[in-house]
Amino acid sequence: MESQKVDLFLMTHSKYFESYQIPIIREQLLLADDSKFIALQTINFKEPVMMLVVSLLGGHFGIDRFIIGDVGLGVAKLLTCGGVGIWTIVDWFLIMGRTREINYEKVMMILG
Hints:
This protein is mostly helical and 112 residues long.
């Protein structure tokens, strides 16, 4: 793929990934063909800051985990009322990183 396209993608989507993941994504994108670039444009990335807000407001019910796709953890969090509140507080610190990991996994699945 063209270096210019790769840099444009990374500039517009860097907030969805951890800083150490960006060089890996760049290397994979440079090796990928244009059909994978089109597939990348269709990915629905989750916004880490928005997930933090959702976690602050509805984390007690596991809504944050349901949205990012961790259904099993969402159900467990719902049934335990956020781990009696402790799990909810811990998630306030972990949910942004987990959201970025899931976004990274989506990109790597397409780039293979």
